[in-house]
Design brief:
The structure is a homotrimer of 315-residue chains.
Chain A (H helix, E strand, L loop, with lengths): L9 H16 L12 E6 L5 H12 L3 E6 L7 E2 L12 E2 H11 L2 E5 L7 H5 L2 H10 L3 E3 L7 H14 L7 E6 L9 H12 L3 E5 L8 H4 L3 E3 L2 H5 L4 E5 L31 E3 L12 H4 L6 H20 L2
Parallel strand pairs in A: 1-2, 1-5, 3-4, 5-6, 7-8, 7-10, 8-9, 10-11
Helix pairs in contact in A: 1-6, 1-11, 2-11, 3-5, 6-7, 6-11
Subunit structure (chains A, B, C): Homotrimer.
Pathway (chains A, B, C): Amino-acid biosynthesis; L-arginine biosynthesis
Keywords (chains A, B, C): Amino-acid biosynthesis, Arginine biosynthesis, Transferase
Chain lengths: 315, 315, 315
């Protein structure tokens, strides 16, 4: 069974990027492909872009999308095997996922990490329960450790903006934030950028090392200035500490990018997955200026999801 | 006007079961039947299966379904006739139901009991207000005292699993729970099982007698062991006391079914409407074993709803 | 770009009314007009009629509607330009509106006033941010100061019930309420009724003067009895004080209309936008009697929205 949970292979990524760009030119070309097929979109956490872009992607393929915001609708799921359910949870993931598996052709699931239970988070415990029990293809709408639809949209956006024939220098830079933020976007971006053959530099303050599983092949430095030198694409993202799990070590505002940071990278484009905390993660001048391609990334979320759903329908 | 609120007649039930089984084989055979028709799904209480299965049933008939979660969306309805609305309620059921009646072709409504006001609950007061004022066909998505779409799905599931030519022994057994639970599922199951001609035995601890209105024709005993003897189908469900209204009298865990309980009913299938509190209402070994047909019941919710909506469209 | 935010010109209003009445006769006549077009419905505040009627209007035109209840889904938007977003807001309106602008063909937005910041409210600050940043046509589903889809539905309803050849006397009367209520419905009704050439009388207790911007051309009096004399249509609505902004000055229950109030206006029809507080704003005898056309207004919300969306699709 074909799930979509992570980067698998460059050939697959390239195919999905091509497919997405074709859909972007002609969104409804496959309007009959998903006729009579249903995708259930399960949100255990809030969403704006992901929900809307997934629904639109499904509609563009003629599929029906049903959204369930389980976080807001008081349907607390039990995740522990063998639990005696005499407390707050009302239904076991085993039973809920299996029912959803009989109701839909594809399940799309958002399940954030706790940021307190490192073991469960790095096993992607909650998300993997859906895969285990649903019995149908599952698409990640962001799990505890990955956000592959975002990363696919990011790769599409880089593809659209890179100079032909030049292997771009891609930089992932940590940015300050006031809250403890998951690692999923940063992990996935590293996984996909490296997998797609981009030259990736990751820069962050000491103590913000990401899980090595995702960063093999990247240059890693705590010197942001050096990292930004000659950059073509700069991906800005906060994440909390991974080693000292879920903690905030630094809120050093000098890490927030301003025009000053781009003296040695005059043509660099700036990326962010949104939502962005303005003037905390990124300055207004960057977001409102010509470097920013954050809106392009958001738009490409539609076509990333459409390519992935289309692929699954071909199974 | 044709509402769907309860068991009416065996011939109607048989027709709906046949129709549902036909739709299960070919879900989209009537895709043009509901074209241009709309069902409004009003939830005064949370829902997972009911909401999704009703939406899917509507889509399978080409209908448009619009869901309104009025419990979560802060739209407190006034139910008392003549009320001076100078407190928390923002709209009278009279006005809200009448508007919904002009917006939709069918209204589907979920309205749980208070479990504190017995008189209003047994009159199915809130649900009946929707019928009174909507002016269009109303389908129960579970009212204070009945859950007929669940029961129809249950009858379909029994039909699929019974041995041809043998009148099955059907048992409804009370199970422990940590909360005060409505009587709707138990009432309706009794009403439909008896109405469909099944031999029904109901077993529960002393003090958990159901409203006699629903159980006429059933054997009732507080000896669970005796009840389970030679059972073909065992429906497991908690409910709170009816006489001492809404109270929890027992949480005796020996009532929770385990494999040990089936020594004298080796071929019995186990049913539950879900969500189920694992290892409180039912043991993991039952739910994860071959006796369990709870997922089949859940799946049949789609076709039960589809048969009922289809019937209403024929009016 | 064509937005729909207020009364523009009598010729436009007349065209929309005619179009709406044509759709009412034949709701699906333009089912292919909106094919492949999407409207995003953004609710920063709760809604029943507006949400359902807008979705239905879109469906009647073959459009896809996606609803986002941002009030309930914890997506607090930052509205201040240049804000350092180190507090509760998670996304700037600039970014959110721009993304929504790439996802949809039309944006429909509900944004109530604060009733505490008069300057921002009368500038319609939040709503105008969506217009500023979305880059696509925006439809008001009620802003801080106007509710034009309601008013268009009201004009349609008057059109349907007026006596041919007679210019009706239209009265807008303040009514008591227990909460501080926005001015949007009253403002818009005045704006549209005057703009459509109706003779409008506004009556309210001293201290409840509306913003003069909306009431130019109306007769204004604090003598409700005199105002009601020979009325053909009486629009009942509460609003809080405008000068002493957002305050409740009177809850004088003698302003609540009963049959007694209609001695000198025997044929008057009574209107209200709903939801209505029964026996606070309006008596049961009026709402349940023959004068009430409040359900007609609610029904016409569908066709008002359909006419407006249809107009935008013609751009």
């Amino acid at each position: 069974m074909k799930h979509f949970t992570q980067f698998e292979h460059r050939s697959i990524a390239d195919r999905l990027i091509d497919k997405a760009l074709a859909y972007k030119k002609n969104p409804r070309i496959d309007l009959s492909k998903g006729l009579g097929k249903r995708v259930g979109c399960i949100f255990l956490n809030p969403s704006l872009r992901t929900r809307a872009s997934t629904q639109i992607a499904a509609m563009n393929l003629g599929m029906e999308a049903i959204v369930m915001n389980m976080d807001k609708e008081g349907w607390a799921l039990e995740m522990q095997n063998g639990a005696v359910m005499n407390k707050g949870t009302v239904e076991h993931i085993k039973d809920a996922a299996a029912v959803l598996g009989t109701y839909f052709d594809v399940l799309a699931v958002r399940a954030f990490p706790s940021l307190t239970n490192k073991k469960e988070d790095i096993e992607d415990f909650i998300f993997s329960q859906f895969i285990k029990y649903a019995g149908i293809p599952v698409v990640s709408l962001e799990s505890a450790i990955r956000h592959p639809l975002q990363s696919l949209a990011d790769m599409i956006t880089i593809q659209e903006h890179m100079i032909a024939g030049k292997n771009p220098k891609v930089v992932l830079t940590w940015a300050p934030h006031i809250k403890a933020i998951p690692h999923a976007v940063a992990n996935s971006f590293a996984e996909w950028a490296i997998g797609c053959g981009h030259e990736l530099t990751i820069t962050h303050p000491e103590g913000y090392e990401l899980d090595r599983k995702f960063t093999q092949g990247a240059i890693i430095t705590s010197d942001q200035k050096e990292a930004l030198q000659n950059a073509d694409f700069v991906y800005v993202k906060n994440w909390s500490a991974f080693n000292d799990y879920g903690k905030i070590h630094s809120t050093d505002s000098s890490w927030m990018l301003t025009e000053n940071h781009f003296k040695n990278a005059p043509n660099a484009k700036v990326m962010h997955c949104l939502p962005v905390r303005r003037n905390v993660e990124l300055s207004d001048e960057i977001l409102d200026g010509d470097r920013s391609i954050v809106q392009k990334q958001a738009e490409n979320r539609i076509y990333a999801a459409q390519a992935v759903l289309s692929d699954i329908l071909e199974e």
